[in-house]
Amino acid sequence: MEVLTMKYNNKNDFEKVNVFGTGNANVNFAQYFIGESFLNPLTNGEFPLFNVTFEPGCRNNWHIHHAKSGGGQILICTAGEGWYQEEGKDAVELVLGKVIVIPANVKHWHGAKKDSWFSHIAIEVPGEETSNEWCEQVSDEDYFKKCFFRKAVF
C-alpha cells in the first residue's frame, strides 16, 4: 500500500486542506504543550468534539485519560502529519484518515511532525469517574530520537 505524503510546512497551504478549521490559540491548555496548538470546537454539549491543530514540532505532554470504566480518547487524523506514542512502545505515524483508539489509563502523547502542520479530531470517550492527568513534557531529545529519525510504523 502506498502512503501519500501530506506534509504541510506552510500554514497557508495547510489551511486549504484543514477542513475542520484551525480555531483559536489553545491558551487554556498551553502549559501542557511544547509549541503552539489551536482548538476548534465542533460540537456543544454532552459529547464534545474538538479539531486540535499543532504547528510543526508541537506536541502535548505525556498524559493519561483516567476512568473507572469506559473512558479513554479517540483521535481521527484530518490533515497534515503527526506522531502518537504510548509509554513503552514505538511512536506511530499519524496521517490523513488514521484512527487511534486510546484506552483509559494509558499514558501517551501526540502531536505534529517536526516538518508539518497537523490536525486531528479529539474525542473524549464517555465513562465513569473520568479525569485527565497531565504528566511531564516530551523532551526534545526523546521527540527527535523516537520520531523524527525513525521510519514510520503502520
Automatic annotation (TrEMBL):
Family annotation (InterPro entries): Cupin_2, HNL-like_cupin, RmlC-like_jellyroll, RmlC_Cupin_sf
Chain ranges of the Cupin type-2 domain: 52-115
Gene3D superfamilies: Jelly Rolls
UniProt protein name: Carboxymuconolactone decarboxylase
Lineage summary: Bacteria, Bacillati, Bacillota, Erysipelotrichia, Erysipelotrichales
